[in-house]
Amino acid sequence: MTLYADVQVSRGSFELALDLTVEPGEVVALLGPNGAGKTTALRAIAGLLALDRGRIALDDTVWDEPPRTFRTPDRRPIGVVFQDYLLFNHLNCLENVAFGLRARGVEKQTARLEASRWLETVGLSEYARTRPRALSGGQAQRVALARALATDPELLLLDEPLAALDAGTTLHVRAELGQHLNRFEGRTLLVTHDPLDAMVLADRLVIIEHGQVVQEGRPTEVAHRPRTDYVAQLVGLNLYRGDASGTAVRLPEGGTITLAEPATGPVHVAFPPTAVSLYVEPPSGSPRNTWPAVVTGIEQHAHTVRVRLDASPSGPADLLADITPAAVADLHLTPGQPLHTTLKATEVHTYPV
Amino acid sequence: MSRRGRSTSGRLPLVLLLPALLGLAFLLVPLVGLLIKAPWSTLPDRLFSADVWQALRLSLVCATLATALCLLLGVPLAWLLARGGLPGRSLIRAFVTVPLVLPPVVGGVALLLVLGRRGLVGQHLDTWFGVSLPFTTAGVVVAEAFVAMPFLVISVEGALRAADPRYEEAAATLGAGRWLTFRRVTLPSIAPGVVAGTVLCWARALGEFGATITFAGNFPGRTTTMPLAVYLALETDPEVAVVLSLVLLLVSVVVLAALRERWIGGLR
């Protein structure tokens, strides 16, 4: 069963027109700057906002098709994690998680049992009797996730699920959220303005700007083939998957990236194109990541030049570097030209898969 | 930095200070007078006389019933005003608040015209159900509810408008219909506002005089509530009036104390 959403909403001069499908088990990230219409799209799909035109359907079941059909949110099999979670403060965590089950007619004891199972899944069993107010941001997010998943929804909607967290906990909570999303068999639509959240959590990115889709595709595709300046700036990120062992990450297609902090197991490796430097001669000193590479493309952006390189077999086969236009002239960059690249290990971030 | 009354805004101007103190005295002296003139020696006897107890019991019962009626009708009305998305909402709100500023006697006359035995609605109540409200205890409840309900509606509506409607959206996405959402999410979140409104409403109903005497008359044991008893006693036995007034003053102070606690607690 696939979710089809042709979302068209007018708000004064703002027009949102968005075509979207989400397959079972798939995590789709709706990525865009503030005011792009992401949250409006999520609200329309949740039924908190009626479409002006278009159609939302889960296979043959129509949720919204103006002017006739409209299912209110309580009649859609959805779970929503709101940006600030909106946990009910007059109920404890267990009652919060059980709320959806009770609302859908599950008998009290069964609902409480199921809810405590979900609290256990998100690792918060001991907080069953705690009021949401007393939870940390990361804990509240997990309770909100458990509450949304407890009703076994066909569609899980996440509105900026990591935006309300401080930087220190984001890393951990993001990895955990990723694990829960992997296990979830329904469809997931994630709304975020943070490219890293989108790239680490989603199977597919849909990037919108001014209410329109500007690009769509797998995270690595989008990152390496940005179609507009905006996307390049937004998701211009070197992102790889590999196996970490100590301070070395082996990439599946060969090549090794050295880290500053040791890690183990399968990880995402990410670093910005600005962290990559280019040299004509092999650099002196000892940067830990030094790869010979060949220039495969050059793109002019607003203030920088993005250079696409192939650093295999010692480094990544598809590597992005941002340099100044002056440096392009100094290096006499042309496609096919051999160069030396360095990457500072301290600029490399890893995220558990 | 001397700590002796150094105020950054300078000395208080006498033009304001004098009337302010006068105003304070004006509000306090009558209450103090009530306490001074109270017949303390004979107070227990008079307090426990059958007449006083009858009036007090009737007052408490009627005010409580009126408050219950106000809750039953007023909370949904407040919800409609705050969440219903009605056209002309501010006009409806203005109508709701009319009894707040209307002289209660006028309210009593209006009630009599509508619910009286020959009134617009009253004649049907009489012929169809054999129910007649004027000059009955039920009439007292109706008169008190009419005057007191705006206090509840305004208070509850304020709480509703201050409550974040996104919690109701969250409940909807969890499968809760509007009634369940109202009961399980909205109502608990506005509980302090409802309590404050209920206390205000009850206090107003307890002190109701004008509408009650106009619509329900003054029949001891049936419609003579405390305020009516005070008025009646003033003409026959002023000391009893003082005692009754003291009882009402005590109840008011208790209500005020409860309210302050609520209001300050709710604002924190």
TrEMBL record, chain A:
Keyword Transit peptide included in the entry's annotation: no
Gene3D superfamilies in UniProt: 2.40.50.100, P-loop containing nucleotide triphosphate hydrolases
Xref: SMART domains: AAA
InterPro entries: AAA+_ATPase, ABC_SmlMolc_Importer, ABC_transporter-like_ATP-bd, ABC_transporter-like_CS, Mo/tungstate-bd_C_term_dom, Mop_domain, P-loop_NTPase, Transp-assoc_OB_typ1
Nucleotide-binding recorded as keyword: yes
Gene Ontology MF annotations: ATP binding
The protein's name in its UniProt record: Molybdate transport system ATP-binding protein
TrEMBL record, chain B:
Cited Pfam families: BPD_transp_1
Transmembrane segments: 12-36, 56-82, 94-115, 135-156, 185-205, 240-259
Assigned keywords, A-Z: Cell membrane, Membrane, Molybdenum, Transmembrane, Transmembrane helix, Transport
Membrane topology: Multi-pass membrane protein
SUPFAM superfamilies: MetI-like (SSF161098)
PROSITE patterns, alphabetized: ABC_TM1 (PS50928)
Subcellular location: Cell membrane
Domain ABC transmembrane type-1: 56-259
Job of this protein: Part of the binding-protein-dependent transport system for molybdenum; probably responsible for the translocation of the substrate across the membrane.
Family label: Belongs to the binding-protein-dependent transport system permease family. CysTW subfamily.
UniProt protein name: Molybdenum transport system permease
